[in-house]
Design a protein that fits this description.
The protein is built from three helices and ten strands. By secondary structure, it is of the alpha+beta class. It has two domains: 8-104; 110-190.
């Protein structure tokens, strides 16, 4: 990627390569960063000083990590809160699936997203939600879900997870949210391999 651009074809080829490699960062963001209605959880950032394309911060048990593509060294890098590179993955002579697999090894087994959503057709009221995605295409088994003390499971073709409509909350809403999260997270964690 550090070769000189001498023609429009060179520019297009390099542009396509960077686009394809950036999709790996976007995929990590989609999987492990809480979903935002405007899709900003998939945003990338180019830092011209360090010559890196950065994804979004991912919360893990070991602290926050961010996936970056170093354009100078042609490597993907996992960078921690202290901005230290903790893992590098060379990308030359590798397929995109090999690159995805090697960068995924630093991620947690499951990504959970929690938030407050506006009223929509799925729930009919504003609601808290918790949803999860397994790593490396791990499919979550949404059969035989446990009954939740507060809220319920919403399983559709487009979204799967636990929802807690705001009208279901009682006076002690913080305690209700905690019970909802604890029960839903317990189920997701039981689905880990």
């Amino acid at each position: 990627m550090s070769s000189k651009i001498q023609s429009k074809q060179d520019y297009n080829r390099i542009d396509q390569q960077i686009h394809q490699l950036s999709q790996i960062i976007a995929k990590a963001n989609r999987t492990f960063v809480p979903k935002a209605a405007d899709d900003s959880h998939t945003n990338l950032y180019f830092d011209s000083i360090s010559q890196r394309i950065y994804g979004r911060w991912i919360k893990t048990e070991k602290g926050n990590l961010i996936l970056a593509l170093n354009l100078q060294s042609c490597t993907f890098e996992w960078i921690n809160d202290s901005l230290k590179v903790i893992q590098k993955h060379a990308i030359q002579n590798q397929t995109s699936s090999e690159i995805e697999q090697s960068t995924a090894d630093a991620l947690p087994e499951i990504g959970l997203g929690f938030g407050l959503a506006m009223e929509d057709n799925m729930v009919g009221n504003p609601y808290f939600y918790l949803s999860g995605n397994g790593r490396n295409g791990q499919v979550m088994n949404y059969y035989n879900l446990p009954k939740l003390t507060l809220g319920n499971w919403a399983i559709t073709d487009h979204w799967k997870g636990a929802v807690l409509p705001l009208p279901d909350l009682e006076q002690d809403s913080l305690k209700g949210i905690q019970v909802f999260l604890k029960e839903a997270v317990r189920w997701y964690m039981s689905e880990l391999p």
